[in-house]
User: Fold Steroidogenic acute regulatory protein-like from Agrilus planipennis.
Amino acid sequence: MMPEYEIRNAAEAILRSSSSHQQIQTPDISHSHSINTIPSIRTEYVISEDLLGGQRIDGKMSSIRRFFCLFVTFDLAFTTLMWIICITLSGKDLTVAIENQIIRYNIHSSLFDVVMVALCRFLVLLLFYGFFYINHWVIISVSTFATCAFLITKVFFYTWTNSSQPVFEVLLILTSFVISWGETWFFDFRVIPQELNAQRLFVSGPETERTPLIRNYLQNLPSMYTESVGNFYSPLGSPEGSLHGVEGLGRYPVIKLSQEKEEEYKSKGAELLRDVWKLCNCTEWKLEKETDNKDCLYSMNFCGRKIFKLSAIIDIPPRCLLEELYYKVESIPKWNPSLLESHKVQSFDEYTDISYQVSTDSGGVVASRDFVTLRHWGIIDETYVIAYDNTEHQSVPKNEKYIRGENGIGCWIMKPINGDPSKCHFLWVLNTNLKGWIPKVILDTVLPKVMLDYIKDLRRHVTKLNESGRIT
Assistant:
């Protein structure tokens, strides 16, 4: 019988030759899809200037967005220049004309309000798209709508019969109208698509059967993400014959989502990661209880309800605990008796998925609930963070058997302990709305008990993993 390493080498050779043959015979990038059904752009086929223009290099602004910001600046400068030309050609002394236009402003005779509209548009667009770097069209659509509404109103209120240079004044209003629409078109049809395509190419990268499970995608996210060897995470090896890695496949129908919808889920996940990190580290948490094991339970008021945070030390490396909580979601009910079901509904990449869970009833006090949750994980300051929030998915409509609860933004955090790599500092933020009519006093009693029971079950599970040698 051939040794195992020779069989593996032979298989690698067959795969390499098969891959080379497929690249020669099928160079059509429109049919390049990964095993995870996420379309990808093959870098060996095409890297255009448009894709490069949408890329953020070292966290800096992309060139296409920088051009948009320059265009907005040009809008203000051009409108101001046109206004100065109009008042200069009126034949009045420049000082007197400016005084009449600004100090003695009147909508019937002054055009300075057109300049002020351009200034407001300039400040709003640069604030949201230049400083906050948002990727949604809603802000520019509102600014364009407000500009058009004002300019149309201005046309009816302005006294054109008293104008000495009506052509230039009409041109001022028309150019402001056209440029505002040009900004909207450019952002929606050029900036957003190019940055999304660049993100898919340079951040997500092509996903194939040979792609490592997790890549260092964090290099182009905000600087709060750690760029270290910790990002090159590889899940623990499964025992021979294990189905881990494909568990849950086929349980729910795979819904083919649009590229924009998938990117929306991924972007929401990355934003969620930042939000839960701030929430977990805020100073408003108050200590509620400390157990004999030094587990600490905290609480705070958040968005009109009481949320909880549990802090504990677990005898498991943080990377291994991430594996148990995120990638082995189907196995959680085996060691967590508070869950009846736990399934992965759909994955969007290695870091983002949607899961479905059903809780058990709490001693007849709180009936079973089911939850549909968006999950996303990443590394912040060498700490593994799994963020989650409520979402919806077509594959899991509401079930008449259960009340559909909502998980607000929450997280599991696994922080390494200096000097002891076999342990981690575990934090759990629970922010849930169980729906239905449940007295607040019952919720404030049941939820802390559920969290403390959970940490006991988790410790028992970790003990079994350590005894079986499945944690290294």
User: Anything to note?
Assistant: The radius of gyration is 29 Å. The chain is about 45% helix and 20% strand.
